[in-house]
Design goal:
The structure is a homodimer. Chain A is an alpha/beta fold. The first copy, chain A, folds into three domains: about 45 residues, lambda repressor-like DNA-binding domains (434 Repressor (Amino-terminal Domain)); about 130 residues, 3-Layer(aba) Sandwich (Rossmann fold); about 130 residues, Response regulator (Rossmann fold, 3-Layer(aba) Sandwich), CATH 3.40.50.2300. In chain A, about 40% of the residues lie in helices and about 15% in strands. Chain A has twelve helices and eleven strands. In chain A, the strands form two sheets. In chain A, strands 7-6-8-9-10-11 form a six-stranded mixed β-sheet, with helices on both faces. A five-stranded parallel β-sheet of chain A has the order 2-1-3-4-5, with helices on one face. In chain A, α1 packs across α2 and α9 crosses α10. The termini of chain A are far apart. At the A-B interface, α4, α5, β2 and α11 of A face α4, α5, β2 and α11 of B. The structure holds a DNA duplex (16 and 16 nucleotides). Chains A, B: It comes from Streptomyces venezuelae (strain ATCC 10712 / CBS 650.69 / DSM 40230 / JCM 4526 / NBRC 13096 / PD 04745). Chains A, B: Keywords: DNA-binding, Transcription, Transcription regulation. Chains A, B: This is Transcriptional regulator, LacI family. Chains A, B: InterPro entries: Cro/C1-type_HTH (IPR001387), HTH_LacI (IPR000843), LacI/GalR-like_sensor (IPR046335), Lambda_DNA-bd_dom_sf (IPR010982), Peripla_BP_I (IPR028082). Chains A, B: GO terms for molecular function: DNA-binding transcription factor activity; transcription cis-regulatory region binding.
Chain lengths: ~325, ~325
DNA sequence: CTGAAAGCGCTTACAG
DNA sequence: CTGAAAGCGCTTACAG
């Protein structure tokens, strides 16, 4: 392979001069620069980034941890993150943890090896326990899409999930619903809290018994949880599902139970995924500012890398919005 | 940061010895090894992978190009690829091209810089034109999920898309349909050819006029194309959509046109995505061996990296299968 | 089994 | 504005 030395010889200069024209850090006489550039072109020289990284200590690569890439939410996080990185000339090292703590731990441990300049961890599933591994790391770390309590040492760019739940609750309240049940993933306690707060504002209580846990965010789990909820609370006029896919399952279960939506039963969901738009009726859901979140998180990381300034003030929470569609209606 | 030299001093040996215990390539006396390992633990030494890469010429990183990560198909490719890489101790550098030729070109060009050991390119959208950039590359390249003609110089692991179309056609034929229309993405000519072949086997012709192009694989485009098809061919009893999401749009358009599925109109799709399972009626669709494909492609790459053997025989095509669900029925 | 030397291809001060 | 030197942290033959 052709090295900087080869280019230098061809151009009749030393390799430091070639380095100078490439980096632009030191001015080079135009005639010399022209000779160097010509030599680069003739030889088809491409700098060896590994060697550069060893010398500079920077790989221009950022690590991204996501639980999975096969949900619209994380797919968007990945693509938005990549766009911002690309704009800054950085590359993306991807790791999907699959909500597998051991896998996450192993990969986290492998990151100490100087191969990335910064790390973005999106989503807390299975990771929280292993975060201490990152405490002595020498590159900046930012957390995003974080729904549980995060260690104070890391900046976190996330959504106000509690408010998301609140919006869902307020929406049902505004439609006159008083008797409701909730289908929730175990990780979604913030959403449930917010939902409850909306009812509490009107002096209404959503009892713990009205919350039905769905072990995982899947269509099947949604059907099961909805079935249980509809059986336990036959008089409920509305359902809040903490995730769209759960709500799609609920739609199915409601159909099976002979309840028509939204006339006999309103369903409000959370996350506003494409599945919710495809569902019939289309789902009323709380939309997440996914791309803004990813953009802001990577932006924070870029500034941390480039400025080497002390950590910025803890960023604020991004606000979700409710999108009313066909699955909710005034209490009949 | 602590280097190999620090470990060596602490253990009272030279850094070569430390390197030897780490690599295991050269036997080290047990007592020495114990001292070295102790020093590593005490100092919390982690090898600098960049330095190792410069010395060895290998980064243990594989690049993966996908058009996007936000379809179930490519999400699966990414996750499966990552699993296999992980098992081999390799990392994943991800690049989503977004079907943007210029973006693909730029990233492809950036790959010559010694930062990856191999490259997997999944999906041909926007890339075919830029493949010559890879001709003089010094790392192995494998193509997968390739639906158009690929340059002969690269091994390609892909699906028999023509056969997929054939399966869809044969299915409709077996159900007695003779008068059909097709909704196709421009890139899906193989699928359409196969579909036609199934009809041709029975001496039936699917005229070019029966093929309606959908500019992009989206719900909206599916609606438009289906609308056009149903208007132009009111007597068609079945539709073949070359992609599930197109078919979901077709379902909607059929409903709007007062056609009930599958009684008045059968719809067979291709790709068997989660959207097809969520649709009502559920979609009959041709399923792709996605994970097998990704696994085989990365496997090929791993062997190419590690064996340095000449390129293997061109791998065969993987076979799709038809999954019959609710959207197709015997011609009424 | 262990150590001394050279080298991977770059960058970064530092002289001139 | 250009060149000589040292160094980034590792590995790889090669002696002993």
């Amino acid at each position: 392979m052709v090295t900087m030395q080869d280019v230098a010889e061809r151009a009749g200069v030393t390799k430091q001069t070639v380095s100078n024209v490439l980096s632009g850090r030191v001015a080079v006489r135009p005639a010399t620069e022209a000779r160097v550039r010509a030599a680069i072109a003739e030889l088809g020289y491409v700098p060896n980034l590994v060697a550069r990284s060893l010398a500079t200590g920077s790989t221009r690569t950022v690590g991204l941890f996501v639980p999975t890439v096969s949900t619209a939410f994380y797919a968007e996080v990945v693509e938005e993150a990549e766009d911002v990185l690309d704009a800054h000339g950085y590359r993306l090292l991807l790791c999907t943890t699959r909500r597998d703590g051991e896998r996450a731990r192993r990969h986290l441990a492998g990151l100490t090896s100087r191969s990335i300049d910064a790390l973005l961890i999106a989503g807390d599933q299975g990771l929280t326990d292993h975060l201490p591994l990152l405490s002595r790391t020498r590159f900046p770390v930012v957390l995003c899409a974080w729904e549980t309590r995060a260690p104070a040492e890391f900046p976190v760019v996330t959504v106000d999930y509690e408010h998301g739940g609140y919006l869902a609750g307020r929406h049902l309240r505004e439609l006159g619903h008083r008797n409701v049940a909730v289908l929730a993933s175990p990780a979604h306690t913030l959403r449930v809290n917010g939902f409850r707060r909306a009812f509490a504002e009107d002096g209404l209580d959503v009892p713990a018994g009205a919350v039905h846990l769905a072990p995982e965010p899947s269509f099947r789990a949604g059907i099961e949880a909805a079935r249980a909820a509809l059986t336990a609370h036959p008089s409920a006029t509305a359902l809040f599902a903490t995730h769209d896919v759960l709500a799609v399952g609920a739609l199915e279960a409601a159909r099976d139970a002979g309840r028509s939506i939204p006339d006999d039963l309103s369903v409000v969901a959370h996350d506003d995924t494409p599945e919710g738009l495809l569902a019939r009726p289309t789902l009323t859901s709380v939309a997440l500012p996914t791309r803004e979140m990813a953009r802001e998180a990577i932006g924070l990381l870029m500034r941390a890398i480039e400025n080497t300034t002390p950590t910025e003030p803890r960023p604020g929470l991004l606000q979700p919005t409710l999108i009313a569609r066909e699955s909710t209606a005034r209490r009949g």
